[in-house]
Amino acid sequence: MKWFNEGDRMRKLIAAQRAKRSPGRAHAGAGLNTLVLGGGGREYAIAWRLARCDSVNTIDVIPGNAAMSLFARTLDFPIDEGGRLEQHIAASFIDLVIVGPDELVASGIGNVLRRTGVTVVCPSREAAQLEWSKTFAKEALREAGVPTAAFRTFRDTQAARHALTDGPVVVKADGLAAGKGVVVARDRAEAEAALSSGAIGSGGVLLEEVLAGQEASLHALVDGETVVALPPSRDHKRVGDGDTGPNTGGMGACSPTRVLPDEEAQPLADRLIAPVARLLAERGTPYRGVLYAGLMKTADGWKVIEFNARFGDPEAQVILPRIGGDFGTLMQALGDGRLAAYTHTHPVRFSQRAYVDVALCAEGYPSLPRRGDPITIGDLPDDVWTFHAGSQRSPSGGFITAGGRVLHVVAQGDTPAHARDRAYVAAQRITWTGRFYRSDIAASEDRVQVTV
Ligand code: AMP
Ligand code: GLY
Fold first, then answer.
1. Which whole-number Å values give the CA distances from 325 to 52, 331, 346, 385, in the listed order?
2. Does 357 contact ligand 2 (Cβ within 6 A)?
3. Does the beta carbon of 250 lie inside 6 Å of ligand 2?
4. Distance between Cα 211 and ligand 1 center (Å)
5. Of 182, 292, 311, which is best to mutate to test ligand 2, by the most ligand atoms within 8 angstroms of its C-beta?
C-alpha cells in the first residue's frame, strides 16, 4: 500500500502549499470555474480575491500577466478573434466571467457573453453608457434628481468655445478617454487652451461647474433596482505628492477613508446610485454589474462627479480584500440576477482591517514609461502583497518592468496609518532603475480608527 501512503503525503503537501498561496482554497473540490478578463493591477486583485474563496475551483485570466500565473492560469490570446473566447468558456467549463477594463465593458462584451449563457459580471453596452458617454450619465443624473455639477453639452470644441465665460470651468470629452479628457480650467484662457490642445478630442464636449471639496470612490453592486454598497475608498490620481502634476490611472488608494466612513456607504448609495439604477431599469436597460461612483463632498453635501461601469484601479486593490464572505458566490449571484435574495441571506460585511495601495511606477509614467528594467524584491513585511500590473518575466527568471504602473504594494493594517507604514517599508525594498512612487498615499487618513 506504499502508493496510497505516498498519495496521502502528496495530497498533504499540495494542500499545505495551496493554503500558503491561497488561504481558503486548501480543500477546494468541485466549485466555480472562473475567468477574469484584463491584465492589470485591478484584475490581479480580482483573481487574488477569488483565490481566497471556498466556492472557487479554477481561475483563468485573459491576458493576465506573468505574476498572476503563479496562482492562476493566464492565457494570452486576442479575445475578439473569431469566437475564441466563447470556445475557451465552453472548453474550460467556465461558470463565471468578471470583466475588468473599461474599454471591454464599453465594447459590449457583457451582451456577447450573456448570450452564451455564462454568468457574467459586466453591464450591458446600453447600461454601461453611464461610463462611456458623459452626456448620457449627466442627463440620467439630472432626470433621476441626483446632485451633480451643473453642466452644458456641445457638439464639438468649436461650439463649446463660444459658450465660455470668464471664471473656472471643467472641460470634458464626452467619450472614454483613459483617465485623460478632463481639464479643470482655472480661467477662460486655460479652458480655451484645453479645447484647442487636442486633449479633449474632436467629439462631443461638456462644460461643467467646478465642484470644490473632497473626493471619495463609492462602489456598489447593482442588479436592476438592487444596490449594495461596497467599502468606500479614496484614490490619488495625480502623479506628484500633494496632488500635483498630470492625472494618471491612479497612484494609490486607501480603504477605509475618513472622507466617507464605512457606515455612510449604503445610505449614500441609496441616495446617489439607486435613483439612477431605478431609472435605467424603468427604461428597460437595467444595469447589472459593478458601478463605481466618483463623489465629491462639497459644502452643499455629496455630489456625483462621474460613473464608471467597472471596478476602479487601484480602488479594487484595497476594497476587494475588505469584502467579507465568499466573493465568488457573491459575484455569481450578481451575474445571475439574484443579488437581492443572496445578500438577504449573506449580507456583505466589510472587514475591520485597513488596506493601502501604493503604485510603484516606471520612470516617465504617465507619458512614456521606461521598460525592460530588472525588478529587485527584497524581504517584505508581513501582511503585504505585490499586485503586479505592468511586469513581465525576464529570460533569467525574475521580473522586468513592462508598463507605467509596474506593481502595486498592497498592505493590511489595523488602521490606514498602520497599513500605510507597512506599504512604504515594502515600497522601499522593491527597486529598479527609475522606479518612483508618491510618498503621501493615505497621508491624510491618520485620525481614522476602523470601527465597523
Ligand atoms: P473623471 O475622468 O470624470 O473622473 O475626472 C477626473 C478628475 O477630474 C476627477 O477625479 C476630479 O478630480 C476632476 N473633476 C471632474 N469633474 C469635476 C468637477 N465638475 N469639479 C471638480 N473636479 C472635477
Ligand atoms: N481609479 C480611477 C479609475 O479606475 O477610473
1. 10, 11, 8, 20
2. no
3. yes
4. 8
5. 292
User: For ligand 1, atom 6, which residue shows the shortest CA distance?
Assistant: 182
Residues in the ligand 1 pocket, defined by CB under 6 Å: 149, 170, 182, 184, 208-211, 215, 237, 294, 305-306
Parallel/antiparallel/unpaired status of strands 288-298 and 238-240: unpaired
Strand-pair partners of 412:
355
pLDDT digit string, tens, across residues 89-99 = 999 999 999 99
- From 137, 97, 138, select the one nearest 119 (Cα to Cα): 97
> What is the end-to-end Cα distance of the chain in Å, rounded?
53
Give the closest ligand to the alpha carbon of residue 249.
2
- For residue 221, the CA-to-ligand 1 centroid distance in Å is 22
The residue nearest atom 5 of ligand 2, judged by CA position, is 312
Measured CA distances, 178 to 36, 131, 134, 173, 200 (Å) = 20, 11, 13, 11, 12
* pLDDT, tens digit (0-9, with 9 covering 90-100), for 148-176: 999 999 998 889 999 998 899 999 998 87
Q: What is the pTM of this model?
A: 0.91
Run means of pLDDT, 10 residues per run, the chain, 452 residues: 41 51 48 97 98 96 95 92 88 96 95 93 98 96 98 92 92 77 91 85 89 97 98 96 92 98 98 98 98 98 97 98 98 98 98 97 96 96 96 92 97 97 97 98 74 44
Instruction: Give the distance from CA 285 to its chain's centroid.
Output: 23
**Ligand 2 pocket residue status of 308, Cβ below 6 Å:** yes
Residue carrying C-alpha cell 477605509: 256
